[in-house]
Specification:
The protein is α/β, with parallel strands linked by helices and 389 residues long. The chain folds into 2 domains: 7-129, 3-Layer(aba) Sandwich (Rossmann fold); 143-218 and 267-383, no CATH class. 40% of the residues lie in helices and 14% in strands. It contains 14 helices and 12 strands. It has helices at residues 16-26, 38-46, 62-70, 89-98, 113-129, 143-174, 235-240, 256-264, 280-287, 295-301, 314-317, 338-343, 353-366, 369-383; strands spanning 7-12, 30-35, 53-57, 80-84, 102-105, 180-186, 192-198, 246-249, 252-255, 305-307, 312-313, 334-336. The strands form 4 sheets. Strands 2-1-3-4-5 form a 5-stranded parallel beta sheet, with helices on both faces. A hairpin with a 5-residue loop joins strand 6 (180-186) and strand 7. The two termini are 46 Å apart. Residues 8-121 form the Response regulatory domain. InterPro entries: Bact_transf, CheY-like_superfamily, Sig_transdc_resp-reg_receiver. Keywords: Transferase. Belongs to the bacterial sugar transferase family.
């Protein structure tokens, strides 16, 4: 079993003797990067130095550094230990209010700093494993939009009922399995619901996903990670002989680039060209968008609207939680939307995730009765697309 690398500590202390004593005492247990000023520590963190914790002396500006670090959203949970000449209730209270993880004497005669650091790291690991609630916020649907949804979908379901029954029969005759496919989706305000579709894939489609990874239309060229021990290094770090941006995640040490590549492998909007998982009738249903007709029921129930941003699978929605990306969930979820009528059906397979996201954000911020009418009118010619996706 490979030995776990020592914790990486950014350390600043303006007293040369105290600095030397700390490195001498704990250098064999910790990977210490001593720096001369708190500004250097802050800059190192801004440059994504993979620190497991920061130890800073109050005499060296540690309290000010603590406040600067806690003001950065992605550094709010980084363990920070402040060292002081004398522990007093006032200093302890000030450090706690500023967000310090702990306070130690500068000579570390009291307490076991290594055990304390290991505790902080383990606490972060356990917290990361805990299930988190999906963020939700209220999205108000205008009365005209809800009235339009009920009127159009109610009428459409009555008119299309013979077609819906015929399609259900064809699906039953074409392949084994349920007629309706239910997929957990995230709609407006991050509300999760079951999206209804006519089944267009074989019942063993999920088992074929791994074998189909090479055909992903949105795959990008990525570096191949070579894992010889418990480390995963990208090619750049392999050339340097060590990891330049190491992360510790779920009991695994790995390069930050490898971590980002793993997340990217689950890229949003994953589709396949000429997908063999699709049934014979399913290909026709997809090309004509008839497979989406059961979503009229979702609209009638209020899960989504006729026009809006497409509700996303859970694994896609969890990636879109930044201040900018989350704006696309501030608008209604819908059957058709702005990006569908902008490029869909024009033979363009190169619409990027960013383009789709920006169109979704544009709709969420600017949707109106007039815009909805234009999208609805443009949707019909876009239904019969030439792309086989």
């Amino acid at each position: 079993m490979s030995e776990i690398p020592p914790l990486r500590i950014l350390y600043v202390e303006d007293d040369p003797d105290a600095n030397l004593e700390f490195i001498k005492t704990f250098g064999h247990q910790l990977n210490i990067k001593p720096l001369d000023t708190t500004d250097e520590i802050y800059q190192a963190l801004q440059d994504y130095y993979p620190a497991d914790a920061v130890i800073a002396s109050g005499q060296s500006g540690g309290m000010e550094l603590l406040r600067r670090i806690r003001a950065v959203s992605w550094l709010k949970t980084l363990p920070f230990i402040l060292t002081v000449d004398k522990l007093t209730p006032e200093i302890l209270r000030e450090a706690k209010d500023a967000g310090a993880s702990d306070v130690f004497p500068r000579d570390f005669r009291r307490g076991d700093i290594v055990v304390r650091l290991q505790y902080f790291l383990r606490k972060q690991q356990l917290k990361a494993l805990q299930p988190t609630e999906t963020p939700r916020f209220e999205v108000r649907i205008p009365w005209w939009k809800r009235a339009l949804d009920i009127a159009t979908t109610g009428t459409a379901l009555l008119i299309l009922s013979p077609i819906l029954l015929a399609v259900a029969l064809l699906i039953r005759l074409d392949s084994k399995g349920p007629i309706i496919y239910r997929s957990r989706r995230v709609g407006s305000g991050y509300r999760v619901f079951n999206l209804l579709k006519f089944r267009t894939m074989r019942t063993d489609a999920d088992k074929m996903v791994k074998d189909m990874a090479a055909f992903n239309m949105y795959n990008r060229d990525e570096e191949q990670a070579v894992v010889q021990s418990n480390f995963a290094l990208c090619s750049e770090c392999q050339s340097a002989g060590h990891c330049q941006k190491m992360l510790y995640l779920d009991n695994e040490h790995l390069c930050e680039k490898i971590y980002l590549q793993r997340k990217h492998n689950k890229a949003a909007f994953m589709k396949f060209g000429n997908d063999p998982r699709i049934t014979r009738i399913g290909r026709f249903l997809r090309n004509t968008s008839i497979d989406e007709l059961p979503q009229l029921i979702n609209i009638l129930r209020g899960d989504m609207s006729l026009v809006g941003n497409r509700p996303l699978p859970l694994y896609e929605a969890e990636k879109l939680t930044s201040d900018e990306s989350i704006a696309r969930f501030a608008g209604p979820a819908g059957l058709t939307g702005l990006w569908q009528v902008t490029k869909r059906g024009k033979g363009k397979k190169d619409m990027s995730e960013e383009e789709r996201l920006q169109l979704d954000i544009e709709y969420a911020r600017n949707f109106s009765f007039g815009m909805d009418m234009k999208i609805i009118l443009k949707t019909f010619p876009a239904l019969f697309q030439s792309e086989n996706v």
